[in-house]
Amino acid sequence: MAPRGCRSFRPLLSAYLDGELSDEERQRLLTHLARCADCHRRLREYEELRERLRRLPAIPPPPRHLQREIWERLTDVEASQRRHHRLRATFLATALSVTLLLATLLSVTVGLQRSQPPRIVASSPAAGTTQLWPIYQPIEIVFSKPMNEQSVLMNLRISPPGERERLPISWSGTTLIIGADSERRVALLPDTVYQVAVLSTAEDRWGRPLGTTYAVTFRTTSAIIHAGETPVPTPSQPQPRPPAESEEARPAPAPHTTPTPIEQPASPTPPARSTPVHTPAAPAAPNGPAPLPQPSPTVTVSPTPQPTPLPTPTPTPVPEPTSTPEPVATPEPIPVTGAFGRVYWSDQTIQQRLGNPTTPAFVVNAAELVFQRGVMIERFDTLTVYVLEASGTWRSVPEPAPIDPPLEFRSIEPNLWLPGGTFGQVWEALALAEPLGYATEASIHMMTAGARVQNFERGTLMLSDRGFVYALFDDGTWKQFPVTN
Amino acid sequence: MSGSVALSAADELRCVARAKAGDDEAFALLYQKYERTIYQFIYRMVGNAEDASDLTQECFIRAYKALPQTSEDLNLGAWLRRIAANVCLDTLRRRSRLRWLRLDHLAPWQGGPSRSTTHDPERALLQTETQDVVERVLQRLQPRYRAALILREYEGYSSDEIADFLGISRSAAKSLLFRAREEFRRLYHEMEASTS
């Protein structure tokens, strides 16, 4: 039997887990938790319950005959009413839509389909969803007609990029299934922001391209609270790296101080969301790699030089013609081409937000590490590390001085790692465990062909060699665009 | 593909307006958008495909009948979820005992994670056993507790939304979640002890 005092805290534990306590209640509870092992245990049990429920097997899709049966019942129900004739008509119409795939196949035989461009008619999760997506639910994308499967796979972009290789991919008719095939089903990463995109250049079986890029961004389920003061973290709640024998001398990582449920918009730390467009963090420099908008004291300790305001192009091979920026008396239009052009010229909002290009595109040596809820990019030309959070804000920090031995990647749970190297140093120094989560890859991705960069009046475009353009706006926000390399 | 038709928010509003005016094709589109999510919620509530199909039918038939009387600013997704919760709770109240089927009949990719995510047979067995216990505990929970937990923990809805779906106040929803967690915990320990 719990002490009387503890019983009064039990409802608060439940609400705490859901992120629905007032500041005062939360503080009161945390104070109690700090000295009550029973309540700690109870909170942990609630968290385990959450994880167990979220790891239940996926529900199979509705049977194909369900829609027909519903329309038959509606027809019966409404038989004596004025809607009867319309229902029957609708039944026929709906039956047609249910057998869309069959009709599509039929139309192929009469040659009609070849003339129709393909399109994506549905996806699960649907575009624009804000609901958490169960980690054991495969992702489905439905095309209007049979596709060139190889072409679709070549034009498929998944972020985090490592998931492209890890998740099984299969087809069921015109439905692309990501996360399952006939032999296995693989869970998505927990508490992670995914972007799945099929590029506009994906072709159907007759060589007709999709025409527009389809992208869906969503966040997966997992435990919600990020307990810093709660000493009972669940595996998917990033915590500071535990000290290893060889790492005793490493500075203690910055602790979390505030549980941040994703439902709490008023939380001091912006919660990760499915759409990476967010409140500006702080204005950055007008051109080139921006200095840290909000300098962190943990970083200023580092003797690393500040990033230079404008990068110097390196002689790394360039995928498209570039030139060294030189001041000219009469400015000529600076081209925006290739992947950057596809992003820039296809979206007027992007043009307005970035302004005109101030340099041609150039290539820099760079590395990248993707996290559950964001990405870090290191530019070796400016010794700058960019931190892009899925909440939609970004910042840059000077590369920290190397330490010896360097931080190693360490597996924390399946497919998630404590970051190592320079990124690990920044991750710890800036206490990025909560906003970014763990690394989704076990090593830093070196961009062997370099990263393409172009500066604009109010921001920068960067192209990762894994098929994503990052638009970094000077107002402190960023967007990600899947592109053909 | 069942359900999940891609309708923008604006398209959905237009479809709702048309369906309210008696346009059955618009209702069919709305059905196709929500079929899957409603079916899956109901399936999780009742635990088997047969009942899930029956109750999904019931849910959409109720929706079809009631749609013309709804307000202009109808939030269709929340409204359908509310009907689905009511349909489940009504049905479960009427039944003294539910039929729960194991999910063994699923295709391999639809089965549990233990079937594919680990090559460690012992770990796989443990995962399967844990899932079985979780499903049996869910089966024994009061339907309202079950609904609250599924909506919160599995589907990620807030207390406000759960309150809306179940027709109760926000504080009642928070209280319901607390009691559901307590009851789940108690039954889980009980079942674990009996199986060990």
Task: Please sum up the structure shown.
By secondary structure, chain A is an alpha+beta fold. Helix content of chain A is 25%, strand content 19%.
What portion of residues of chain B belong to β-strands?
under 5%
The residue fraction in helices of chain B comes out at over 70%
The percentage helix of chain A is 10-25%
CATH structural class of the largest domain in chain B = Mainly Alpha
Could you characterize the architecture of this molecule?
The complex is a heterodimer of chains A (485) and B (196). Chain A contains 13 helices and 19 strands. Chain A has 485 residues and is an alpha+beta fold. In chain A, the strands form five sheets. Chain A has a five-stranded antiparallel β-sheet, covered by helices on one side. In chain A, helix 1 (4-17) packs parallel to helix 3. Chain B is mainly α and 196 residues long. Chain B has two domains: 1-99, RNA polymerase sigma factor, region 2, helix turn helix motif (Rna Polymerase Sigma Factor, Chain: A); 104-196, Orthogonal Bundle (Arc Repressor Mutant, subunit A). In chain B, 70% of the residues lie in helices and 0% in strands. Chain B has eight helices and no strands. Chain B has helices at 9-20, 24-46, 49-66, 76-94, 121-140, 143-154, 159-166, 170-195. Mean pLDDT of chain B is 79; it is low at 97-118. At the A-B interface, helix 1, helix 3, helix 4, helix 5 and strand 1 of A face helix 2, helix 3, helix 5, helix 6 and helix 8 of B.
Strand and helix layout:
The complex is a heterodimer of chains A (485) and B (196).
Chain A: H1 4-17, H2 23-33, H3 37-54, H4 66-77, H5 84-98, H6 100-109, E1 120-124, E2 139-143, H7 149-154, E3 156-159, H8 163-166, E4 169-172, E5 175-178, E6 193-198, E7 214-219, H9 297-300, H10 338-344, H11 348-354, E8 362-364, E9 366-371, E10 374-379, E11 384-389, E12 394-398, E13 410-413, E14 416-418, H12 421-429, H13 433-436, E15 445-446, E16 451-456, E17 459-464, E18 468-473, E19 478-482
Antiparallel strand pairs in A: 1-2, 2-5, 3-6, 4-5, 6-7, 8-16, 9-10, 9-15, 10-11, 11-12, 13-14, 16-17, 17-18, 18-19
Helix pairs in contact in A: 1-2, 1-3, 4-5
Chain B: H1 9-20, H2 24-46, H3 49-66, H4 76-94, H5 121-140, H6 143-154, H7 159-166, H8 170-195
Helix pairs in contact in B: 1-2, 2-3, 2-4, 3-4, 4-7, 5-8, 6-8, 7-8
